[in-house]
Amino acid sequence: MSGLQATATTSSVGTGAATTKTVYLVKAPANTGIHVRMFEISFDGTSPTAGKALVQLVKNTTGGTGTGTNMTPVKISGHAGSVQATAKENYTVEPSGGTVIRAYLVHTQSAFTSPEDIVLDPGEELSLRTNVPAAVNCRSQMRWTE
Questions:
Q1: What is the pTM of this model?
Q2: List of domains in the chain
């Protein structure tokens, strides 16, 4: 990890109602790890009395299967190299496997930013998934150093 900082931000992702939904996944390149520095998620709910969303960070070492839409990570700063990590959003088939390493309850009329300090080994994945009582849309991003 030599100091290249990168990010990827999702489009507006529908969470579905009372279903587990992976909204974001970043995968470290096969030849080097990454250091996840931050993640955030925001919801566009309209009800002040709505139930809270369960937001989970899931670490996967098995290269789990799943179907998501590719995102293009963007270099924020750092050396002249290019971003090697890959990212996906809005999974229609959930990734298999993985271990929940953090869990939060977030009101669906708000946003949540978490400074993280998670190192992914080469090829490991970190995903952000939700389970929301009533369907809303969300946007999320992670920032990492390669």
A1: 0.91
A2: 5-145 (2.60.120)
